Amino acid sequence: MDVNQLNCFITVAQTLNFSEAARRNYVSQSTVSRYIGDLEKEFGVKLFTRTHRDVIITNEGKILLTYALEMVESLKKAKTALRRIHDGEQGRLTVACDVTSVSFPGQCVAEFSKRYPNITVELCRLDSDDLSQSIRGGEYDFCFLPRDMVPESSEIETLSTHTDPLVMVTASGRFGKLRLVDISQHRLLLLGESCAPIIYMEIMDLLRTFHVSPKEELSFEDINSLMIAVSSGMGVAVLPKSFIGFISGKQLVCRTIEDAETGIAYVTAWNKNTQNPAAALFISTVQKFAEDEDNVYGI
């Protein structure tokens, strides 16, 4: 018994016409007759009674029709599920983000989940202990991070997503007009080097360029502690603009750093030999936002 036999049987049962069943299934009438004969032989029952003028389905045929419809529908569902997995429309992706990559990947995941609801996206914080192995070894399907954090490897592919400027961040109402050089009069609040190495180095380079020495430096190893310190007026922080736009409320004020090139280039990285069929669909989604000028800062 195969699906072709079942389809022909169902059509005969529904139309009570062998010629019409042959036409709808794109086979000859003799093929339809052979299929019905094979089914009758397999089940050992008569499925139809034929006269010169009529075709009548038997009680046994009516019972088989119920099961045949269920089997054909189940096969269709199985075929659809297998096609979705093969084409990447069903499955799972693991997306990792470094501590400052939040707004841009958030947009990508939101759009991707909307377009492909049958693909589960698992989000996690990027562990920078061994990025090369994490990406090449498949621990993460995609990583969002500053370009300069990407390990050198011929197995890693990258796509530039956006460039994010640094801004000064203070508590609302705690500081008046503030320039970069004024940081020398205040406490500088930083994400620690081990937490966000590229951001940390960029800020240090910026301070050296403008010959600015903060009154005091205070480092934090997690973003929550840093934002609490900023909100409480403990000092001035320097952070990527899109990151502040993603988490800030009325209690924070962002100030542009003038006369300085502070852009940090971000990318998404993945194993170029990935076997995950959903990867191509996710790359296409990221590309869409990366090419959108309105999202140049990921906000």
Topology of helices and strands:
Blueprint: H1 3-15, H2 18-24, H3 29-43, E1 48-50, E2 55-57, H4 59-87, E3 91-97, H5 103-115, E4 119-125, H6 131-136, E5 142-146, E6 156-164, E7 166-171, E8 187-191, H7 197-209, E9 216-220, H8 223-231, E10 236-240, H9 241-247, E11 252-256, E12 264-271, H10 279-290
Parallel strand pairs: 3-4, 3-5, 8-9, 8-10
Antiparallel strand pairs: 1-2, 5-12, 6-12, 7-10, 7-11
Provide tags for this entry:
Arc Repressor Mutant, subunit A; 5-stranded mixed β-sheet; 299 residues; 41% helix; D-Maltodextrin-Binding Protein, domain 2; alpha/beta
State the CATH topology of the largest domain: D-Maltodextrin-Binding Protein, domain 2
- CATH architecture field of the largest domain: 3-Layer(aba) Sandwich
β-sheet strand percentage: 15-25%
Structural class: alpha/beta
Helix content: 40-55%
Order of helices and strands: HHHEEHEHEHEEEEHEHEHEEH
Average of pLDDT: 86
Structural overview:
The protein is an alpha/beta fold. The protein folds into three domains: about 5-85, Orthogonal Bundle (Arc Repressor Mutant, subunit A), CATH 1.10.10.10; about 95-160 and about 275-295, D-Maltodextrin-Binding Protein, domain 2 (3-Layer(aba) Sandwich); about 165-255, D-Maltodextrin-Binding Protein, domain 2, CATH 3.40.190. Helices cover about 40% and strands about 25% of the residues. Strands 4-3-5-12-6 form a five-stranded mixed β-sheet. A five-stranded mixed β-sheet has the order 9-8-10-7-11, with helices on both faces. The protein has a two-stranded antiparallel ribbon with strand order 1-2. Helix 1 (about 5-15) crosses helix 2 and helix 5 (about 105-115) crosses helix 10 (about 280-290). The protein starts with a helix and ends in a 9-residue tail after the last helix.
